[in-house]
């Protein structure tokens, strides 16, 4: 196709008639035809790292090249944030691209428990994806389970021919412990325990 349309779903109207005219052939007028234009994506400018929750320091980001995995293990605790940045481009045109589905998955290596978080679609002209999660806020979702987690990026779209799951890195998380059920129960018992009796003394009033 000369105009090379952008990836997406299109509907064409097709009309055809025999030349020269032949009464034996009906031809077609305004027939509808659905076409999906696919694309192949490349992932570029990827970096991952951590940042203090208070944002008092600059993020410690390390560059990674798709589809390789970060060679060293990251470390973070409940006072930090996990940061991931990357861009997607159309392999044929090199234009910045976005997808309908982009997620980061954290998987506990020991228990297999997973949490999947959405990577918001970028709004700027450069279309840079920026994932930023407060690990302390996610402690309850991860059942306050410290340990080694794998970090994966999931990218997919109906018009992307090479949807993928990228195993980016591993990270050692030190999460806050969950409140003790026994301590919570004891606290409730003390709250509802009968309080000491209040006595009131009256003084005789002298006329």
Automatic annotation (TrEMBL):
Official protein name in the record: Dolichyl-diphosphooligosaccharide--protein glycosyltransferase subunit 2
Alphabetized Pfam families for the sequence: Ribophorin_II_3rd (PF23860)
Lineage: Eukaryota, Metazoa, Ecdysozoa, Arthropoda, Hexapoda
Cellular component, GO annotation: oligosaccharyltransferase complex
InterPro entries in alphabetical order: Ribophorin_II_3rd (IPR055374), Swp1 (IPR008814)
Organism this protein belongs to: Diaphorina citri
Domain spans labelled Ribophorin II third: 45-173
Gene Ontology terms describing biological process: protein N-linked glycosylation
